[in-house]
Amino acid sequence: MSLPQDDAAALSARWTEGVLLKRDVFSTVERGRFRSEDGEVDAVLRRLDEVPWWSFLLARHLFAREKRALALAKGLNVGPKLLWGGRRALVRGFVDGVALHLAKPHGDLAYFRSAKAALRRLRRAGICHNDLAKEQNWLVGRDGHAYVTDFQLAACFARRGRLYRILAYEDLRHLLKHKRSYAPDALTPHERKILAKKSFAASLWLVTGKKVYRAITRGLFNFTDREGGGRRLVNDAPVLAALIRKNPAVRDTAIVAFADRRSGVGLYAFVEADQAVLEGELRNELAAAKGPKPPEHIQVVHALPRDTSGKPRTEILQLVAMNQLDLIEPMMKNDQDRAFLKAILEQRKNLRDRFNFEADLPTS
């Protein structure tokens, strides 16, 4: 399936291809640059030309919902701007920030105040996002403010009827669930009451609709979306990590997913060991095990970046694997972190799908 001629012509004249962010049965999403009326800007393209025929009708429906919601949200400063919209492709502005599950804003009360204000602006415009349970859809901007993205399930209302009020309530409840994860002590008594009380529609969805949704998406569509990693990250990565750790020279490993233009989803294994020549040995061992497909990339590092509890900082490693290098700098806490990461960046393996986002690499 190809893009309509007018879509293709507009994109060829104004879009510069960049880093592939995600590819699934509903769309292809990539980051690049777009020539707008105000000049060239960082942007994100969603396109339907690589969607399989059997999911196209649903993909087109989701695309239309996002396009309408982004147009209605113009000027609200709660998420990406709609820069251009065609019949099977749209370009939205790039929000300079990282997803909630990567930024992990522990104790950041200003962020959650900003998030609540963003929801109020959406509510006044008659927009319910409907997918805010996913941390991937909440962004922590470089300015510290909250933004939301991925409006494919959004619903727009001209009147604030009962359905609107239920969906708006659920948007708020999902935000408070994230606040409970990152700033639990800051929850007010009223917010705790909201968390404790699901709407009737939400309760009904959990026991009926959600089961049907999972049966369709994970069964019929073979679709699993854990941080964009799909089934390979959910099913294959744990098995591969266990096999890698069997090598006596390996101290630890962390496997993350990245979007790949050839295979759809690729796996990138960061292996903590002292032997730089270990990569070939590990590939032979994984092939001999006849288990899941080996990772597309294996990088041996002297030490994995770790948080205060000692767990590998997979949020940073995932950005390295995805070549989103400009988003890493705000996550560095000190010069030691920057010097440590510089060694990993200089030896990274995923160089095929990259873009000029690396002008300000972390330096010591």
Provide a descriptive summary of the structure in words.
With 364 residues, the chain is α+β, with helices and mostly antiparallel strands. Helix content is 40%, strand content 21%. It has helices at 5-14, 56-72, 100-103, 109-124, 162-182, 189-196, 200-220, 230-245, 278-289, 314-321, 335-346, and strands spanning 15-24, 27-36, 39-47, 82-85, 89-93, 97-99, 127-128, 138-141, 146-148, 155-156, 252-260, 264-272, 297-301. Helix 4 (109-124) packs antiparallel against helix 5 (162-182). The longest helix has 21 residues, at 162-182. Mean pLDDT is 86; it is low at 356-364.
Summarize the structure.
Helices cover 40% and strands 21% of the residues.
